Amino acid sequence: HLAVSKGDIKIVKALIAKKADVHPTNEREESQPSGSISENASINQANKDGNTPLHLAIFNEGYFDFDFLTKANNISLFLIDHSSELNRQNNDGDTALHLAVLANELEIVKGLIAKKVNLSLKNRDNKTALELAAEQFKLRKIFILLTSET
Q1: Average pLDDT over residues 84-92
Q2: What domain range includes position 69?
């Protein structure tokens, strides 16, 4: 979680390659590197809010400068390729797709859809990612979401 929140894709890749134990957590119950090695390291470990590193990478994109946005986008796309739980919902019921729509991240939306994420999952407000896109008049995302349902 820490490497993702700092936007450092090199560290994220190195931790995954070395199968670093990402299960030790800090006071916010976010994974932090401990130097230990685990055969079953998981990039799907969620914090106390139910957010995985992918959720955090997408969510954090709206709060940092352009340089960080580029790094976070790269991390998000990297995590999409390596995560086995792309449909995982956080405590608000949001999936990575919900968050990508809300963050206006078209490339991440495309990447998630290419991985065949579940488009019908609803969040705590009983809304799908398509409904969120429609509410925000994000026409390109609406088109992508609609054409992928065929």
Answers
A1: 92
A2: 46-148
